Amino acid sequence: MSKFHFKTVIFFISVLLAAACNPTEEEQATGYLEQATGFYRQGSYVAAKEMLDSLHRLFPRQVDTRRQADTLLWRIDYIELENLLPRLDSMLITVSGEAEQLSGGFLLKKDEKYRQTGIYEHRSMRTEINVARNYLKPVTTEQGDFSFTSHYVGQALSLHTITAVCNDIFIETPPISATQLHTFTNLGVTYETVLFLDSEAEDFCRFIVEHAAQPVTIKLLGNKTASYTMNRNDRTVFADTYRFAQALKKIHQLQEQKIVGEHRRAVIRQRLQL
Questions:
Q1: What ranges do the domains of the chain cover?
Q2: What is the predicted pLDDT for the residue at 15?
Q3: What is the pLDDT of residue 11?
């Protein structure tokens, strides 16, 4: 055999050996699936999911192996949902109890003709018994969306901002737009109201809640300036309404998670034919 032919044979043998030693893409994908299955059996569901994600990302053409990976992922999701849903029920019981404790003194106002969501307001904050004074009126929706309205009675201010002061520490609301300010005059007296959502004045709300046990001065800054001190009841009601809103919001979030989880579990049961 010539030296050329001998080298050619050696080359082809090397190529065949290299091909035999390197696993195919299908074998590699199967290896990922086997590792994920091992983690699944150990109860290491996060690690199993990571392996399955890698399988899908690295081997998009391995359709059969990816189908098996999807089935394994459904089994993992089902186990996690079986653990999660009872925890959500337990949390709902706890938070509902907290909301019940905070609900004393609140009235639910709901006009089903004009709005689907009811509003909780404290009995002491009813507008009809607070017409002639300056105060902040907090309310919350049934879903826990907190807001407050600044009520001012006196000479026209055309409010720009509201500042809360306690122990030389202060916080301001964002600048008030013309669309937020509602005003009317009756017998020479001006009434101005401004609505603030929690998302617009979150820091301001938390400031009053955190200082509810101490005197808080409210400064109304506009074309003129006015100020008043929140009385103890107003501070307490503001803080209680805020906490009540937080509890209601948590209940709403947990209920939504439960609905989504139960739907997801039902879909997986059908897919796995459980």
A1: 3-99, 106-249
A2: 41
A3: 42
